[in-house]
Amino acid sequence: xxxxxxxxxxxxxxxxxxxxxxxxxxxxxxxxxxxxxxxxxxxxxxxxxxxxxxxxxxxxxxxxxxxxxxxxxxxxxxxxxxxxxxxxxxxxxxxxxxxxxxxxxxxxxxxxxxxxxxxxxxxxxxxxxxxxxxxxxxxxxxxxxxxxxxxxxxxxxxxxxx
Length: 162
Description:
This protein is mainly alpha-helical and 162 residues long. The protein is built from eight helices and no strands. The longest helix has 25 residues, at 115-139. The chain starts with 5 loop residues before the first helix and ends with a helix.
């Protein structure tokens, strides 16, 4: 089979995220979300570029779908499992959050942030964006994402001395 080009892969991932965020998801699908090629590539340029790419991705998804779709990862995370066992999709959601936080924290540290501070900021950024995507959907507006973006950018700039 021929190897897919990066743009095709990203379209597939974004398309899957859209479908999943509307109709549910499986552990395999959510692991695909963790691969977000643009985030990893942009973080190589620095944490500010990674933040902008992450924000742009979710802004595009919520706006382009008329605020009907968001990130499927928190949807899985808040769904109560039917038993005391941790379902694979829930474990995969935790893995995705961990990966996003780790990628951002690594980039922050590489650009001058202190180790503890980098981990705390990464957790704040991921949780802020994920929560704000839900708020954007409820309000049918990208304004909450824009307001949060400005604050997160300032926080990252201060952490890396920009």
